[in-house]
Amino acid sequence: MKLKNKKSALTENQGIERPEIISAISVEQIQQFRKIQPSSEELVNGILSGNITALSRAITLVESTNVLHLEKANEVINACLIHANKSIRIGITGVPGVGKSTFIEAFGKNLTGLGKKVAVLAVDPSSTISHGSILGDKTRMEELVKDNNAYIRPSASGETLGGVARKTRETITLCEAAGFDTIIIETVGVGQSETAVHSMVDFFLLLKISGAGDELQGIKRGIMEMADAIVINKADGDNVRKANLAKTEFNRALHLFPAKKSGWTPTTSTCSAITHDGISEVWKTISDFTALTKSNNYFFEKRKEQNQYWMLETINEQLKANFFNHPEIDKLLEENKKAVANDEISPFAAAQILLEKYFKK
After folding, report:
1. How would you classify the pairing of strands 88-93 and 203-208?
2. For residues 262 and 295, is the Cβ–Cβ distance under 8 A?
3. Residue 205 has what pLDDT?
4. Which end of the chain is less packed: N or C, by CB atoms within 10 Å?
5. Which stretches in the chain have pLDDT values below 70?
6. What's the rounded Cα separation, in Å, for the pair 32 and 228?
7. Which phi and psi angles does 149 have, rounded to 5°?
8. Which residues lie below 8 Å from residue 312, measured CB to CB, with a gap of 6+?
9. How far apart are the first and last CA of the chain?
10. pLDDT digits (tens, 9 = 90+) for 100-135
11. What Å distances lie between residue 125 and 94, 120, 172, 257, CA to CA?
């Protein structure tokens, strides 16, 4: 028998409308505030006083491709230079899945516990298809991001080799001027591109995990030669024995490499970012390295070489940008790309035509 008055289980009883949780007035005030652009002097004063909002705004200017923003960013950076160079810069790399973010959070908390001010510049890989990035490093470092003595700035790698270039290098200067004495750069972790990070840090830390078969792979030689320390992460639970075996293998491998100019002998150790075992020992290793390289003057000479390197890199980057942004080149480039694709001209001859046109402009 069919019940005519039976109500559907999906029937919704009329209730009270949900109140607005966002104030339209507050939204408008925030939007108006963001439209106000502080002057270079205001940004510099804010940075020097440790204002995180001013620091973040200045970094945004550095990362911008707008010509006007670039001029303003240079003014801020030049004013901050005299207050920089008072930190230890640490590059941390490792293959995806090695636990870089978890390690950095544990390591960062250890440092803030010692009274350090830590800035983490996390480079997030950009998609080659959509050119977007997740920028989820703050989410993965949920404890460190709440620490008043820590600052986390995720940035998209873009098309730059290693995900770092002038933007990251100048961000370091701004963070140092803001009072951060320990700068950590987390890299994309893709191999050859780590050279870019190595050229802007004082200490280069390579994170590894046991059982990955890396001990005997010659392809890793380049990264291992750059490393000042190798740390086997995830040395906890049933993985402790494997981690210690990996430590022994890596230690043997390091003895095959030539001695470093710094006079430092690279170390190997194990740690667990989960249990925090071995984390404090990593900082002791970095402190020992800093003391040695400052005593033999390598620390300061290396920074001078890095400054010169990034001057030349900036020239290369600017020349490239000027070339591709030139209107005549833009038109001629499309014509030559089609000709190259149709085998009407060789890529090298087409490049020569474009370069000659640019330099005769």
Report:
1. parallel
2. no
3. 94
4. N
5. 1-22, 31-35, 124-140, 156-166, 188-194, 211-222, 361
6. 48
7. -100, 15
8. none
9. 90
10. 889 999 999 999 999 999 999 987 654 444 444 444
11. 13, 16, 19, 30
Q: Which of 264, 268, 230, 265 is nearest to 248 (CA)?
A: 268
Other C-beta atoms lying within 10 Å of the C-beta of residue 318: 12
- Give which of 171, 84, 79, 54 is closest to 123, Cα–Cα: 171
Tokens read off for 64: 């911008």
Alpha carbon distance 230, 207 (integer Å): 6
Residue 315 has a pLDDT of 85
For residue 249, the one-letter residue type is: E
pLDDT digit string (tens) for 150-188? Answer: 999 987 655 555 445 568 888 999 999 999 999 999 886
Q: How far apart are CA 358 and CA 104, in angstroms?
A: 46
Nearest-CA neighbor of 128 among 150, 159, 153?
159
> pTM higher than 0.85 for the full model?
no
Would the CA dihedral through 68, 70, 74, 80 be positive or negative? positive
Cβ–Cβ contacts within 10 Å for residue 9, how many?
Answer: 5
The span from the CA of 134 to the CA of 140, in Å, is 12
> Torsions phi, psi of 217, nearest 5?
-85, 115
